[in-house]
Here is the input.
Amino acid sequence: MKWILIGVIVAATTVGEICQALGMRSHGEIRDFRPGAIGRAMAMLARNRFVIASVVAMAVSFFAYLGLLTLTDLSFAVPATAVTYVLETVLARYILHERVNWLRWAGAALVVCGVALVSL
Amino acid sequence: MSHEHARLRFKTWVCAILVVCSNVFGNFFLKLGMPPELPSPLAYITVLFRPTVALGVALLIVWMLSRMALLSWADLSYVLPVTSIGYVLVAIVGRVLLNEQITNRRWAGIVLIMAGVALVSGGAPQTAREKAHAAGAGQ
Here is the structure.
């Protein structure tokens, strides 16, 4: 049950965060942090299909995460779901076309090793 | 150009700190308020009305919004490792505030995560943007 929930969380989070990054990139840099401008930005984002898809995926991930928290320690649940790091760095390279240089790959690899140690 | 660079870096750090803190404490309050089991689908909804769980959810909403703001200018492959310092803080919060047992192996993992964060956070937060603008202009 624990591992099924982790699988659901990882899949939903990965999809959600890639969509979130796509949506925010298409919106462009937020420069104005006054309340009115933030409100306008949010109204615009609420109509962005990538942002909508990301919210749905994150909601799925959130309820699966609630289920997981009833079963395990917090210091297991959080690192165990960090497999999303590998998937997202790879997808950032191939879907978002970010230039993932060797420093970022090395950093991601270290994070993955650390996460494996923490969660096993 | 260098002024623009400094502005972006400052904004990135402020936003990243907000992302990390809201995530760590959101998770903490969620775990704190969670009952030992959730027997029915309805329980998944009613549990959201417990004060500590509601506070956790509110913090996770702050997390999501600040993360979206950060992603509006920074690369995903930059944001991921930089905010992964949160894993370390979650472990410390679990140890200190929730009395969870943390083995040497877990601490070793935490050190590796911090090393990974240090490697990436020295670089520039944005790589793909000019390319994306160029592609957008071409269409």
Q: What stands out?
A: Residues 2-138 of chain B form one domain. Residues 39 and 122 of chain B are 47 Å apart (CA to CA). Chain B has a mean pLDDT of 81.
